[in-house]
Amino acid sequence: MRISSSAVSLTVDDVTASSKFLVNHFGFSERMSADGFVSLGRDDAGVDLVFLRRGIEVLPEPLREQRAAGVIVAFVVDDLEAEQERLRGEGVEITLPLREEPWGERLFMVADPNGISYELVEWAAS
Q: Which InterPro entries match (predicted)?
């Protein structure tokens, strides 16, 4: 098997709100869109993010009314402190303050208007 690209689809109530959040605060750009659907990407991200409006008919019926929940989208970055300060300066609420885990992961979290959690990660030097 050869995988040529990857995407994660998240079902939300307000596609535009999540899309704008990633475009404005994380530098994603719109790759495709239609009513109730947007696909966003960054050349350096390794994965595209797709937002689907809850109830949209392209989803299998058992999934249509479900919302993305319990999902954390993680981005590994080079300067975690600078990213935290940049986002604070842009008015983004830090939902989990910067911390370091015992296994060397340094992280903080934010959430978009639909409640999707984004974790920014930097690995501590050994």
A: Glyas_Bleomycin-R_OHBP_Dase (IPR029068), Glyas_Fos-R_dOase_dom (IPR004360), VOC_core (IPR037523)
Quick check: 40 and 49 in contact, CB under 8 A? yes
Backbone phi, psi, residue 3, to 5°: -100, 120
pLDDT tens digits for range 21-77:
999 999 999 999 999 999 999 999 889 999 999 999 888 888 888 888 889 999 999
**E strands along 1-126, which residues?**
7-12, 29-34, 37-41, 48-53, 72-76, 94-100, 105-111, 117-123
Which pLDDT value is given to residue 126?
56
- Can you give the residue ranges of every domain in the chain? 7-123
Cβ atoms of residues 55 and 68 within 8 Å: no
Mention the CATH class of domain 7-123. Answer: alpha beta
Kindly give, in sequence order, each residue whose CB lies less than 8 Å from that of residue 13, ignoring residues fewer than 6 positions away. Answer: 53, 54, 67, 114
Residue 25 CB-density burial (10 A; 0-12 exposed, 13-18 middle, 19+ buried): middle
Cβ pair 126, 34 in contact under 8 A: no
10-34: per-residue pLDDT in tens?
999 999 999 999 999 999 999 999 9
